[in-house]
Each structure stands twice: as structure tokens, then as C-alpha cells.
């Protein structure tokens, strides 16, 4: 019966598909009316924007006392601007409203005295869609993702085009995990300054939308070769007092995927999830204040990995890594917008976050037939993370709309307070070991950005300065016959300084688009370590590099466009990647950082094509990335030991080439369809490295290559009586990972939502991994060993929720 249900659900998947909310590009037009002879401004001139073909009215206004006018919320397309004043000719001006900038300055428009009206010019309009017309950014509304509503941001993102998730909770974009994660356009300690962390604990209920930027301009930091994902928090600007309250509850791990190995504590089952959230906003006159609060409590079977390690000596070890996790995640974000006058605005925001994690783990080690248990390692992790950030933004608007200068200062403090307690149960004795890690991260960013619209585009430029410090202290407390390396503790001090400057130019006419920019960054990293550390010494690096970006586009007609992109980006090692202290959450497969790790640099080339039609669009992109100094973890076996050490290394040159396809179609008023596929080839050239910890070991790898990808299909049904339903399917093909491969996996998600209380309330019910099929299988080959593992971690969760807008 269960098999028949699976077949029916999979069949429905390949019917109509759900589409993310579409984003329409809105533009502000501005200019100044002048007398053609005297060059003096003409106040109170009449300005009208019409459709050229039908002559239908779009927008109108009157110029101010200085002859300046502006028209807001104009859709992309070719339009006709008519300007008139008593005693002057009515001037008709064809206007191209493009998609590259939200402000256009038409400059000085001169009127001649005493003439007849001119005939109108007829030019067709242009359609916009959710994938930006620049094809460098995709924008998705979180509220439309019913099958993941009430979950985390990480769970929402797995449905996005080109995005997949790894076993350890990282995102991959087009086959690369080097993704820069932003919150409201800024890097924060919650998501990481040089990588990505914490996404599985950010409630989706707090988020308005998510942007995927595959080809960032020079305005953005240069890190993240795969691109940028920008998470935008909810913020209401309606007049008066308003808000939204949401309560979500759920259960996971209702069925056990695989039984434990003998003699360990039970796996978590029927794990509860609770997520209340509150959003408040008050706007009156020149002040807008806002508050967003979320509290998340979850129990999770975070890891349940069964592995078999086979050594060249013939020894076979079977093990299980079971980790029961309790997480509480509380966030409060508040702020104020103060519109001082028409030209000056100040925004002040503050965010406080507390994340508490309790992990209880069991790791038994057996021989091949499970007749002898050689070891049982039990651990308790007690970790608390605090994040406090504040930002102040001043914006000056010149009289010309869109002509702005912004100055902002952001400060972040992040504390990581982590304690581990180990029980090492051996046949002859039991040892008690522990360690404590304390890390205080402080980051200060100063930014200045300038934007000036032009008649056919814009220019922008700016500068940034960052200072980041992370002192870390690690203390080991060994017990009886401790396996912990007590000499690897001590202190380390990470300091990072980054000044940067950028410029960007945008031009657009009826057929061609150009965007060209250059960012120059200087990076200096100092990493001081305990002088008596048994392996590592103080390291650091610095570099000064240019990071260009270029986009050229040709418009075949109003529905067809081709774009080509080029950019150069960098991935700097994060402090955790170079952290000298071994991590013992698994005592026979140990993770260690590497202070000698250096940045990897990537050159990217992409060709994109987009075709719009009445109720849908087709988008495709061919991309190729070349990376030098590829950062990856390499596992090696310590001599005369079964211990395996995972150490970050620069593995030389690698390549990532692929094609991305997205098709969206509204089949009927009650059905919308969307499907996306991403197929890529990952290649790592042959390389040789030396893992220095705990003793030097040489590792040599042959050239590795694999074609992989993912396919996602969703169905959105707009039913009667306020019901909506969504069915989502994801297939991930086998992929290349450091020293091995991860096998194929798939999942099915289902969600139902109903609008109640005259549109103010909403009820939803959903299930992730409905068929409970999502397991991660890996095959790893190292020097002297092979390992095959399957992680049966918790993936199936049922949620119910209610929200009310007031």
C-alpha cells in the first residue's frame, strides 16, 4: 500500500508546478524642463507618460518651482513622454525604461515657443518577470513556499533553483559550497563573514524574500565564487500600527529509519518543534519603527550515520554516529527610519540573537560482525552563541531622484561559548575528558556608496573598510588514559583588515545593455598562535587584487534576450577553517584547521538566454568556473594508527561547468507550473598535499571528474474556498566530494494552506520528505583506508501553523 502511495505522489509531481512570486521592476523617471533659448527652468509644466501604441495614460505630474519632475513606479518598456506648457510646443520624447536600474535621469528637456503638437511615436512594451531582466538575480517570496512554511531558512532554500544542501547543513549553489550569505544586504555573524553558518536555525517566518545573485556586480564584496544569497527580513512600512503574529508547531522522526547498533542510548523520536513569531510596525509622519521577534525550539535527530571503514591491513571497523540535538534560537530585531526631510533619511537597526545547542551523542565501534565492541564514545556538547549587531545608515537624496549618497556603519559582536564532555568507555577502563572553547568575534564595517542616474543608465561607486578580530581560547581537561591531544590547546588570535574601493557603470538602449565594474581589495590576515603548539606556528597572508565584472546583453526583441557575464571572485578561509584546535565530536575521525590555508581565486564566464511569453518564461544559462587553490578537506590516516584526520588544504586547480534551466508556465487560473534543472561537471586536477597534524603525512590524488546535478519540480494548486496546495519533488544526482562521492537522493514535500478571517488569518499544514526517503550515502577513499557511510538523519517533519495580520 505504501509503495502505491509513493507512485501516486510521484505521478502528481510531474503535473502542474508551483511558481515563486514574480518581482516586477519599477522605475522612477526624472528630469528638468527648460526654455530652449534662455535656458531658464519652466515651473509647473505638464508631464504625461503614455503607451506609444495605444496612447493610453500611464502616469502624470507637474514640474515643481525649479522645473524638476519625477514619475514613480513605471514598468519596464518603451514609452512616450509628453511635456507641455502654455505658449510652448508640446514635446514628445520616446523613453526606454530598462531593467538595469530603478532610477533614470532624462536630463534637461528644452521646450520651444509657439508650435503645433507633434505626432506620437508608436513603440511596443516589454514584459518583466521574477528572474530579473539582467538575468543576474532571482528573487523568491518565502510566503509562497507552503511545503516548507514553519521550517528554517535552510529548508526553504533547498527548493530554490540551482541550490542544494550538504550533509553538514551547508548550501551549494550550482555545485559549489562557496556561497556568500547576506542578511538585508550585509554580512553578519549569524550566517558567517567568510562562509555560511546557522541557516538551519533561522526561522523562515522572519523572512520576507530571498535573492540569488549568481553574477554580483563590483558593488558587492568579492568573496563567494558561486555567488551571493541575500536573506531579507520582514519590514512593514504601512501607515499606523500593524503587525503579524504566527505560531507553528510540528513533529519529526515519527518512524525510525534504521535501528541503533547494540548497547547505546535511544534515538530521538517524535521530536517537537515550536516557533512563535511576532512582527510589529508603527509609521506616523516622518518616523517608521519596526520590531521582529522569533523564538524557535526544536528537538532533532541531527545525525545518525552508519559507517564501515576498511583499512589496507584488512581490519574492518563498523561504527555509528548518533547525535540527539536540542536547539533554542531567539532573535529580536528592531529599528527606526527617520525621514528628516525630502532629502535626508537616517535608519538605525539593532539585532540580538541567542542560540543554545545541547547535543547528546553515542559513537560505538565494533568489529565486522558486531560480535566485539572495541569502544563506546559518548559526548555532551553544551554550546551557547550570542550575537549583537547595530547599524546606522545615513542617506542623502539629491533633487534628482535616484541620485544618492549613503554612509553606513555596522558593528557586530559574536560570542561562541562551547563545552564538550566525553565519556570514553573501553573494555578495560572508562575515561572522562572535556574541553572548553571561548571565542569573541568583533567586526566593524564602514561603507560609503554613491549612485547617480543617467539618461540611459547610471554610475555608482564607493568604498568599504573592515576590521575583524577573533581571539580564541581552548582548554583541555584530560581524564584517565585520555586520547585527547592535551598539547594542542592554548590560544589563537585572528585579525583581518580589508579596505576596498569599487566603481560601476550601466548603459542601456533599445538593443544593447552594458554593465562594467571593477572592485579593488587589499586583504591582510594575521593569525597568531600559542608559541608552544606542537604542530602549528603563527601564519598570515596578504594580497591586493582587482576583481572585475562585465555584463553585455543583446535584445533580440521584447521577448528574447541574450546576456554574457564575466567576473573574478575570491574565497578567503574563515577563521574556523584555519583554527588550530582539533575537534573531537568523533574521536576516530577528527577535524583540524590549517593556518597555512590560503584564498582560492575563481574566474567565471556565463552565457544566459531568456524568453518571455504571456503566462510564463524560459530561462537558461551556460556557465564555466576555473578555481585556483581549491579549498577542500583532506582525510589522512595517522601512521601506526586507525585515527583519521580531516584537514583543510589548497588542492590546486578545479573546474565547474554546467547548464541551468528554468521553465515557468501558468496553465490555468488555478494551476501554475515551474520546473528547474541544473546539470554540471565538477573536475579536480591531480594534486599532492601534506597534512601536518598530528605528524606530517603526504596525500596524493589523481584527477577526479563527475557529472552531477539536480532536478526540482513543484505543483501549486489555487483551489476554491481559500485553499492552496503545493507538492514539491527534488532529485539530487550523485556528486563529487573530497576524496569520494555522494550517492543520489530524492524527497517529496507537501503543503496545504487556507485563508480565513476575511484574509487576516491563515492556517497551514505541511510535511517535508513525506516518503522518508532522504538519506545521504558517501564513499571515501584515503591513504590506507576506505569508508562507506549512510546518514539516516531526521528529514521527515510534519508541521501545522496559524498566522494573523492586524
Automatic annotation (TrEMBL):
Superkingdom, taxonomy of origin:
Bacteria
Note the Pfam families from the entry: CarbopepD_reg_2 (PF13715), OMP_b-brl_3 (PF14905), Plug (PF07715)
Which ranges carry the Outer membrane protein beta-barrel domain?
A: 396-804
- Which keywords are on file for this protein? Cell outer membrane, Membrane, Receptor
Q: Which InterPro entries match?
A: Beta-barrel_TonB_sf (IPR036942), CarboxyPept-like_regulatory (IPR008969), OMP_b-brl_3 (IPR041700), Plug_dom (IPR012910), Plug_dom_sf (IPR037066)
User: Matching Gene3D superfamilies, A to Z?
Assistant: TonB-dependent receptor, beta-barrel domain (2.40.170.20), TonB-dependent receptor, plug domain (2.170.130.10)
- Name all TonB-dependent receptor plug domain ranges: 147-227
Q: Where does the record place it?
A: Cell outer membrane
Q: Which GO terms describe its cellular component?
A: cell outer membrane
The keyword Cytoplasm appears for this protein: no
rRNA processing among keywords: no
Query: For this UniProt entry, what is the primary localization, expressed as one broad class?
Result: membrane
Protein name (Swiss-Prot/TrEMBL): Outer membrane receptor protein involved in Fe transport
Q: What is the lineage of its organism?
A: Bacteria, Pseudomonadati, Bacteroidota, Sphingobacteriia, Sphingobacteriales
Amino acid at each position: 500500500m505504501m509503495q502505491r502511495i509513493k507512485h501516486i505522489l510521484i505521478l502528481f509531481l510531474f503535473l502542474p508546478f508551483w511558481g515563486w512570486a514574480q518581482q516586477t521592476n519599477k522605475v522612477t523617471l526624472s528630469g528638468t524642463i527648460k526654455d530652449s533659448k534662455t535656458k531658464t527652468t519652466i515651473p509647473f509644466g505638464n508631464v504625461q507618460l503614455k503607451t506609444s501604441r495605444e496612447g493610453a495614460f500611464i502616469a502624470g505630474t507637474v514640474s515643481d518651482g525649479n522645473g524638476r519632475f519625477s514619475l514613480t513606479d513605471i514598468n519596464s518598456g518603451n514609452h512616450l513622454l509628453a511635456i507641455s506648457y502654455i505658449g510652448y510646443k508640446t514635446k514628445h520624447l520616446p523613453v526606454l525604461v530598462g531593467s538595469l536600474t530603478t532610477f533614470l535621469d532624462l536630463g534637461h528637456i528644452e521646450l520651444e515657443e509657439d508650435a503645433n503638437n507633434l505626432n506620437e511615436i508608436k513603440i511596443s512594451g516589454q514584459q518583466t518577470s521574477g528572474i530579473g531582466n539582467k538575468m543576474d538575480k532571482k528573487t523568491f517570496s518565502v510566503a509562497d513556499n507552503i511545503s516548507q512554511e514553519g521550517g528554517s531558512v535552510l529548508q526553504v532554500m533547498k527548493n530554490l533553483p540551482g541550490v542544494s544542501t550538504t550533509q553538514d547543513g551547508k548550501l551549494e549553489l550550482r555545485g559549489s559550497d562557496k556561497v556568500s550569505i547576506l542578511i538585508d544586504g550585509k554580512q553578519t555573524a549569524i550566517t558567517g563573514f567568510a562562509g555560511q553558518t546557522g541557516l538551519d536555525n533561522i526561522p523562515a517566518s522572519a523572512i520576507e524574500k530571498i535573492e540569488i545573485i549568481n553574477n554580483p556586480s563590483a558593488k558587492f564584496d568579492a568573496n563567494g565564487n558561486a555567488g551571493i544569497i541575500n536573506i531579507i527580513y520582514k519590514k512593514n512600512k504601512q501607515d499606523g500600527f500593524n503587525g503579524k503574529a504566527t505560531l507553528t508547531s510540528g513533529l519529526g522522526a515519527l518512524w525510525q529509519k534504521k535501528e541503533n547498533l547494540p548497547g547505546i542510548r535511544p534515538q530521538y523520536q517524535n521530536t517537537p518543534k515550536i516557533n512563535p513569531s511576532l512582527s510589529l510596525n508603527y509609521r506616523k509622519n516622518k518616523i517608521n519603527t519596526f520590531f521582529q521577534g522569533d523564538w524557535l525550539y526544536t528537538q532533532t535527530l541531527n545525525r545518525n550515520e552508519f559507517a564501515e571503514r576498511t583499512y589496507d591491513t584488512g581490519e574492518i571497523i563498523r561504527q555509528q554516529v548518533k547525535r540527539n540535538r536540542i536547539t533554542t534560537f531567539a532573535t529580536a530585531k528592531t529599528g527606526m527610519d527617520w525621514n528628516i526631510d525630502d532629502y535626508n533619511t537616517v535608519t538605525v537597526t539593532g539585532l540580538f540573537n541567542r542560540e543554545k545547542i545541547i547535543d547528546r551523542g553515542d559513537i560505538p565501534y565494533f568489529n565486522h560482525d558486531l560480535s566485539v565492541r572495541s569502544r563506546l564514545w559518548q559526548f555532551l556538547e553544551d554550546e551557547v552563541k550570542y550575537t549583537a549587531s547595530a547599524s546606522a545608515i545615513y542617506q542623502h537624496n539629491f533633487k534628482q531622484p535616484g541620485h544618492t549618497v549613503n554612509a553606513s556603519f555596522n558593528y557586530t559582536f559574536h560570542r561562541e561559548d562551547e563545552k564538550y564532555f566525553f565519556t570514553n568507555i573501553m573494555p578495560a577502563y572508562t575515561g572522562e575528558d572535556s574541553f572548553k572553547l571561548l571565542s569573541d568575534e568583533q567586526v566593524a564595517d564602514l561603507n560609503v556608496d554613491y549612485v547617480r542616474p543617467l539618461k540611459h543608465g547610471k554610475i555608482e561607486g564607493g568604498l568599504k573598510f573592515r576590521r575583524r578580530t577573533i581571539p580564541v581560547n581552548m582548554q583541555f581537561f584530560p581524564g584517565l588514559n585520555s586520547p585527547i591531544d592535551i598539547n594542542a590547546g592554548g590560544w589563537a588570535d585572528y585579525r583581518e583588515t580589508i579596505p576596498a574601493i569599487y566603481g560601476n557603470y550601466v548603459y542601456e538602449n533599445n538593443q544593447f545593455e552594458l554593465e562594467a565594474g571593477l572592485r579593488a581589495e587589499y586583504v591582510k590576515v594575521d593569525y597568531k598562535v600559542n608559541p608552544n603548539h606542537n604542530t602549528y606556528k603563527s601564519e598570515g597572508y596578504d594580497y591586493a587584487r582587482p576583481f572585475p565584472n562585465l555584463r553585455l546583453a543583446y535584445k533580440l526583441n521584447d521577448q528574447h534576450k541574450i546576456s554574457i557575464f564575466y567576473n573574478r571572485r575570491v574565497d578567503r578561509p574563515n577563521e574556523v577553517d584555519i583554527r588550530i584546535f582539533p575537534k573531537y565530536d568523533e574521536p576516530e575521525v577528527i577535524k583540524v584547521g590549517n593556518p597555512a590555508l590560503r584564498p582560492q581565486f575563481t574566474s567565471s564566464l556565463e552565457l544566459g538566454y531568456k524568453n518571455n511569453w504571456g503566462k510564463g518564461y524560459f530561462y537558461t544559462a551556460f556557465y564555466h568556473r576555473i578555481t585556483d587553490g581549491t579549498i577542500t578537506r583532506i582525510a589522512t590516516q595517522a601512521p601506526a594508527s586507525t585515527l583519521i584526520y580531516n584537514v583543510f588544504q589548497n588542492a590546486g586547480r578545479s573546474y565547474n561547468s554546467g547548464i541551468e534551466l528554468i521553465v515557468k508556465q501558468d496553465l490555468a487560473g488555478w494551476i501554475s507550473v515551474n520546473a528547474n534543472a541544473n546539470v554540471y561537471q565538477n573536475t579536480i586536477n591531480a594534486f599532492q598535499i601534506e597534512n601536518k597534524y598530528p605528524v606530517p603525512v603526504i596525500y596524493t590524488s589523481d584527477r577526479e571528474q563527475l557529472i552531477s546535478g539536480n532536478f526540482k519540480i513543484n505543483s501549486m494548486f489555487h483551489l476554491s474556498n481559500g485553499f492552496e496546495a503545493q507538492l514539491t519533488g527534488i532529485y539530487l544526482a550523485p556528486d563529487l566530494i573530497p576524496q569520494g562521492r555522494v550517492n543520489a537522493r530524492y524527497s517529496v514535500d507537501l503543503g496545504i494552506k487556507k485563508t480565513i478571517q476575511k484574509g487576516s488569518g491563515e492556517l497551514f499544514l505541511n510535511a517535508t520528505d513525506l516518503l522518508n526517503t532522504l538519506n545521504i550515502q558517501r564513499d571515501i577513499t584515503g591513504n590506507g583506508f576506505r569508508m562507506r557511510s549512510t546518514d539516516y538523519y531526521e528529514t521527515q517533519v510534519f508541521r501545522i501553523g496559524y498566522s494573523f495580520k492586524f
